[in-house]
Amino acid sequence: MLTKRWLVLSDGALPTEDIYLLESAAPALRDEGFDVGRLGVRGLRWRLARWVLSRQMGANLVICRSLPVYALRWLERHRDLFGRIVYVIDDDIAAAAADDTLPEAYRKRMGRLASLQPRLLALADVVVASSEALAARFEERHRDVRVLTPSLISPLPDLHHFEQSTWCLGFHGTRAHLADLQHIASALIHLHDEQSALTMEVMMGQHTPPELRGLERVAAPQAKSWRAFQRHQQAQRLQIGVAPLLDTPFNRGKSFIKFFDITAMGGVGVYSRRSPYTEIVEDGETGLLVEDCPQAWLEALRYLVANPETAKAMAEKAAQVARERGDPAHAVAFWRALGSEN
Length: 342
Fold this sequence. Notes:
Strand content: 15-25%
Structural class: alpha/beta
Helix content: 40-55%
CATH topology of the largest domain: Rossmann fold
Strand order of the largest sheet: 2-1-3-4-5-6
Largest sheet: 6 strands, parallel
Distance between the termini: 6 Å
Radius of gyration: 21 Å
Mean pLDDT: 96
Number of strands: 12
CATH architecture of the largest domain: 3-Layer(aba) Sandwich
């Protein structure tokens, strides 16, 4: 029987909720008669959410990354009220908690989430992971694990900014990627000193490595809320985006979402030569794949700056790949099929 009601129980993981369902698949599903919505369950919203849930008998529920413990406890007691429960995960939370290269506060927060994950897996009928590598981490812990790669939910700009005399290089990662950025910091410093017409934007605020934050043409805005970041992404234009990714257990579970982030700002990306980027980037055609050596990063960045027409052509091809691989139609088909299963 086709079940047409999907309700996301939101603990604040708005990017995950939007990329994998609410801004990717939900608009088309609603046109087909599906009822898809979001219900905030954090903090003071829980009392109203509990009342709403008690009147949603038979609805399918979606949990992204986590739930507050009080909501989890209630759901465990009232599991029989609902249809399928789907757990969407886009990070290896347990690996993050154990990774001593990550900021301590972040590790502690991930540790709290990891401690609840066995209960979430026990509730879920289906686990949806954002990459094959991440799915493999859950296959021994759950009977039904599926892969849904990210959707492109941002419009892609034209590439007229490649004709500007001043170029911008951007890094837009969370503080969970501080060690990745620090590893290539020396390459960015050399490039900054060599290229007076190049500016940089590193959206890590006070977490930006001091050696980068002090450079003349480096802007280090604070990390933004999801909605504010979406607005910034649509306004900002990059010629080059960097996405370093060291070989750690946490990073091995990552998706290729940064490929979409860079293309959404009009850039061509330089990426670590490893999964997940090797799954979507054709080296020299839709971006550059680079080894972990900072000198290799510097040479790749120098190449793009010295060859603006080639860089623009690569950005154009990357945008086409983003449209194809990130087409929300893939997510629509995934959720439609999931709802049609008994």
